[in-house]
Design brief:
With 320 residues, this protein is an alpha/beta fold.
Length: 320
């Protein structure tokens, strides 16, 4: 297989695009694609300040690498979740993220959730009714709250995450199976900002996970290989596997599924009676927007944790 650009030996063959490229041209092609999507979906400009949510994984570190190569003002934010039993997932991902930032002279904010809330994610999940003790629902809530808090407090225009096409197609698949119109209306490359909520963008939403993996490896980015231990058995992983089977037999199926959805949404398929206009209120404790008057879900969860553990000594171990 030869590179379409130069005729040298290709190292990546993308059946879905009918395109094979050598290392040099692949490392140029991915950032050029990302730049194209940033412009196409009006994600941000070179004048705006971008906060990249980095987890230490291949997608978020590669996104940070690409944005800085493209000349954008992109700083990183790492949230230490305190998921350290067994694999030392949080400590290791923080180490790799800090190493990445230091090696490139990039600015990285680190927020320790245990210091912010008094508890790690597994501890918060233990005392919360959300997700029946499984930490992912609590984790999602904490991440959304803290990413938005830092973006607002430090003055970033936009929050960028490393969701790739496989992530987006799996979420879309799950929401379509249940026709969750409220979620479908919010899914897309850009979620516009509202008062108190930063604009959220996904510059990798049209890049396959496999393509991001190849980018990280060819670029020599050191990332955490292990998944979060709580990811095991997640429905989204099952949906990814189903979509991978379709993709295997029909290259490009995932991209077609996602792009057809975006086109349907653009042409008003989900609008009209489904359009949801929620009145937002400021949480009296943290000031972040919330749908009902009173404390937001994050502050309520932290308060409940404090009440439940009042008078109980905290068995804290070594945390990142
Ligand atoms: S980090 Fe958090 Fe994920 Fe781990 S606890 Fe679940 S949501 S699986 S992306
Ligand atoms: Zn080439
Ligand atoms: Zn609050």
């Amino acid at each position: 297989m030869k590179c379409r650009m130069c005729g040298q030996k290709a190292v990546v063959n993308m059946r879905q695009h009918k395109l094979a490229l050598c290392k040099e041209h692949y490392l140029e092609w991915i950032p050029a694609q990302v730049e194209r999507f940033i412009t196409k979906y009006s994600m941000f400009t070179h004048e705006e300040k971008i906060l990249v949510a980095v987890s230490g994984g291949k997608d978020s570190l590669s996104l940070w690498d690409i944005l800085t190569r493209l000349g954008y003002q992109a700083d990183g934010l790492y949230l230490c979740l305190g998921i350290d039993e067994g694999l030392h997932y949080s400590s290791e991902s923080q180490r790799l993220t800090e190493k990445f930032a230091v090696a490139r002279g990039l600015k990285l904010h680190v927020v320790n959730i245990q210091q912010e809330t008094g508890a790690t994610i597994p501890e918060l999940a233990h005392t919360s009714l959300r997700g029946r003790g499984k930490p992912c629902s609590v984790c999602g809530l904490v991440k959304r709250h803290e990413l938005n808090r830092v973006a607002r407090d430090v003055g970033y225009d936009v929050l960028a995450t490393g969701h790739n096409l496989d992530d987006e197609a799996a979420v879309l698949f799950g929401n379509t199976l249940t026709w969750s119109v409220e979620y479908l209306l919010r899914q897309g490359p850009v979620l516009p900002g509202t008062s108190g909520l930063a604009r959220k963008v996904k510059p990798l939403c049209r890049i396959y996970e496999r393509e991001m993996l190849a980018y990280a490896l060819l670029r020599g980015i050191e990332y955490i290989y292990e998944e979060c231990p709580f990811a095991e058995g997640a429905t989204s992983i099952y949906h990814k596997e189903l979509l991978n089977r379709m993709e295997h037999d029909h290259p490009g199926a995932k991209l077609t599924f996602y792009l057809s959805f975006l086109e349907a949404r653009r042409s008003g398929f989900f609008s009209g009676e489904h359009e949801i206009r929620q009145e937002l209120h400021a949480c009296p404790k943290c000031g972040q927007p919330t749908s009902a008057p009173g404390l937001c879900s994050f502050c309520r969860m932290v308060e409940k944790r404090k009440e439940t553990t009042a008078g109980v000594s905290d068995p804290s171990g070594k945390r990142c």
